[in-house]
Design a protein that fits this description.
Blueprint (H helix, E strand, L loop, with lengths): L4 H10 L1 H21 L5 E2 L2 H12 L1 H14 L7 E2 L9 E3 L5 E4 L3 H11 L13
Parallel strand pairs: 1-2
Antiparallel strand pairs: 3-4
Helix pairs in contact: 2-3, 3-4
């Protein structure tokens, strides 16, 4: 995706608060979270859930989703798998976890991701006997 330098700078500035929160959460996950061990009843962990929510939904909505998840994670919770809800428009995340901008087209991205996975993982692609 080719963007003009002005558009690129605008995206960097617009995503700065989001990436600042990502940096704080990644520091928490690297330094403080290992001290507690695996205590979260949900998968992904509450900090990972908050990280993904902020990456995809922004600081305000993502923080609210993360806070609600922490409230739900209590000794009486059943736990289980609780992923961040999918968005229509997703954002590209680099290997360090920072948001770099919106993805070009979710359908194109999904097609590219399935094109590199081995056919054995997709039962609909196998021959029927």
């Amino acid at each position: 995706m080719n963007r003009s330098p002005l558009t690129r700078v605008a995206w960097v500035v617009a995503l700065l608060p989001r990436n600042a929160c990502v940096l704080v959460l990644r520091a928490y996950r690297a330094v403080i979270s290992p001290l507690y061990g695996n205590v979260c009843r949900y998968h992904p962990s509450c900090s990972r859930y908050a990280l993904e929510a902020i990456q995809q939904y922004g600081v305000v909505a993502g923080s609210a989703m993360g806070a609600w998840r922490i409230v739900r994670c209590n000794p009486w919770a059943a736990g289980g798998i609780d992923d961040v809800p999918e968005r229509r428009r997703s954002y590209a995340v680099n290997r360090f976890g920072f948001v770099t901008g919106p993805t070009a087209d979710p359908h194109t991205q999904q097609h590219q991701q399935t094109a590199v996975t081995p056919p054995l993982l997709h039962p609909q692609r196998t021959r029927k006997a």
